[in-house]
Amino acid sequence: MLNSLHTTQIYVLDQDQALDFYVGKLGLEVNTDADLGFMRWLTVNVPGEPGRSIVLEKPGPPIMSDETAAQVRDLMTKGALGGHLFFATEDAAATHAQLKEKGVEVDDLMDQSYGIDFGLRDPFGNHVELVTGQTVLARPINFGRPAAGISEFGHLCLDAPDVRAAHEFWSTVFSGRVSDWIGDGACLMRIDPVHHKLAFFQNDAGAGFCHINFQVRTLDDVMRNWRFLQQNDVHILHGPGRHPTSTAIFVYFLGPDDLTYEYSFGVQLIEDDAAWRPRMFELQEPGSIDMWLGPTQRTVSQSQLAERPSVNADANPSESAVSV
Ligand SMILES: [Fe+2]
Question: N or C: which end of the chain has fewer CB atoms below 10 A?
Fold first, then answer.
């Protein structure tokens, strides 16, 4: 619905005097100074922030009657109707000293839990607070799970009865480069800086479809998706865990028709293509698939052109030795 707060307002008794204070002393800049006939529309903003302005408004007709305006002025004079403005400043101590030099009456500097700050009153009783060192949370922070957080397609994994032969084909015909081997059980290949966009798993059952990987934007997305899948009774095959090969943090799950999917985050990029030397991981070594040493369930593969049992993870339609 709403996008931003762009204009706020405070009352001032004299707009020229307000300009002298807010622009001449506090260092704001004039945003708009327009004679609308029925009123002077005067706004100021912090330099560099023209999208967030403050109206310096003189109480009076046509917004309010002369009688009401007199009451507002009376309350302002007593300091009972002051607006409040809170500004951030790079160096509260330096700003404090500069304002004192300009004759502005300022309160003492205070070391607060949220930063160093001090207050002052404008000539009309409005309260102005300046703070430095206040923690600003980076935005946007995604606290929920509006979506899976998929940022891009990650990789495609195929089954092959002979991983070496698959490597030979894909490296010569499609110019894929091998990033890592896992014994004779798997070959991980890249076609761009991503550690692997193609992977081949040894499967005696023959050619088949092993899994599709999607990269998600953050580690939080991996974990939120894992919870979400669990809550929706989706069969988790493996993870959360972390592959020592690509360094990606993953979760594997079974989708419709026994297709296996993977969400992962943090896949390694191989920027210096010429300098990369493929590594050999030993499949039997603990942690060679999941360096967090989590329980591993073999990835369910979908054999190509094969008659298969009904959708049921326990039916073990066809299982690859590894999942990467
Ligand atoms: Fe994978």
Answer: N
Q: What would you measure as the largest C-alpha separation in the chain, in angstroms?
A: 93
Ligand 1 centroid from CA 264, angstroms: 8
Going from the Cα of 211 to the center of ligand 1, the distance in angstroms, rounded, reads: 7
In a shared domain, residues 106 and 208 = no
The answer to the question of residue 2 being in a domain is no
Number of domains in the chain: 2
295 CB-near residues (< 8 Å, 6+ apart): none
Give the angle subtended at the CA of 191 by the CAs of 189 and 194, to the nearest 5°. Answer: 80
CA 310 to ligand 1 center in whole angstroms: 24
**Residues 223-281: pLDDT tens digits?**
999 999 999 999 999 999 999 999 999 999 999 888 899 999 999 999 999 999 999 99
Question: Residue 311: which pLDDT band, with cuts at 50, 70 and 90?
Answer: very low
Q: How far is the CA of 157 from the centre of ligand 1 (A)?
A: 7
Q: pLDDT band for position 313 (50/70/90)?
A: very low
Same domain, yes or no: 118 and 158:
no
Protein residues with C-beta less than 5 angstroms from the ion ligand 1: 213, 262, 324
If you measure from the C-alpha of residue 193 to the centroid of ligand 1, how many angstroms do you get, rounded to a whole number? Answer: 16
Instruction: Supply the range of the domain harboring residue 71.
Output: 7-132
Question: Could you tell me the distance, in angstroms and rounded to a whole number, from the CA of residue 306 to the centre of ligand 1?
Answer: 22
Q: What is the mean pLDDT of the chain?
A: 88
Task: Look up the pTM and report it.
Answer: 0.56
